[in-house]
Amino acid sequence: MRCVKYVFALALLFLLAACSTAPKPAPEPEPEIVLPEGEPEGVIVKRSPGPNPYDATPEPDNAQVRALFDKANAAIVNKQWAKAEALLMDAIALGPNYSGLYFNLGRVYEGLTRLDDAVAQYENAIAMNGNNIYAMNALARIKRTQGKFNEAEALYKQALAVWPDHADSYKNLGILYDLYMGRLQDALEQYRQFQALQAEDDRLMTAWIVDLERRLPAEPAPAAPVESAPDSEENAE
Questions:
Q1: In angstroms, how far is the first alpha carbon of the chain from the final one?
Q2: How far is C-alpha 217 from the chain's CA centre?
Q3: How far, in Å, CA of 210 to CA of 10, rounded?
Q4: Which end of the chain has the lower number of beta carbons within 10 A, N or C?
Q5: Quick one: 155 exposed, middle or buried, by C-beta within 10 A (0-12, 13-18, 19+)?
Q6: Same domain, yes or no, for 161 and 108?
Q7: Rounded CA gap, 83 and 73, in Å?
């Protein structure tokens, strides 16, 4: 009887061990983004971005302005536009020389689709601080939606003149050239500049570059040199 109990207990232990060590089913693989196959032509030389001049902008030295600014940012994230507007107006009354306040007020008005007011505030932000590349990009985006492509282009170039390593300005300018102005070669150059500033290649940008290279017309092959006809016997010396 003891032998039977022992065998039964041993079998039970083996069964429990087998259950505990059984491999778990592999998780379902996440769907991958389907990107165009192929690699961009040529080599994109990587470079590290230099310091952003706008980062050198001193923060408000008024603690109350800073607190209002932070609360307004939180309200913007939650799309509480009226609350954010009131907080920013209070902050501007206390510290009217801080560019970031006008930039965020522009974001509020853009969220409310009050585009004329948004344009005015982005312009105020740039006038207050000529290094505010974020206000330049935001203003360029509105100009693009209004069909003012040349003005948008000038603003993106203005941002890149301030900070030649601002990757998003290259990307946004490339989109403007690619989708709105039909300047495919210029768009390709901007996309390559964006990719050069990434520590690792951005997969989506790689796809855009490959797609754009395929859409560009092939360059005609150089014409073969034509030998000049020999002089006639009459003109030969």
A1: 128
A2: 27
A3: 63
A4: C
A5: buried
A6: no
A7: 10
Note whether 125 and 179 are same-domain residues. Answer: no
Q: Longest Cα pair distance anywhere in the chain, in angstroms?
A: 129
State whether 117 and 165 are in the same domain. no
Instruction: Tokens for 34, please give them.
Output: 């389907």
pLDDT 10s digits, 195-206: 999 999 999 999
**Which domain does 192 fall in, by range?**
152-216
Contact 109, 84 (CB under 8 A): no
Number of domains in the chain: 2
- Give CA angle at 62 (59, 66), nearest 5°: 60
Both structure tokens of 160: 């890149």
Tokens 């030389």, residue located: 45
pLDDT in tens, 89-109: 999 999 999 999 999 999 999
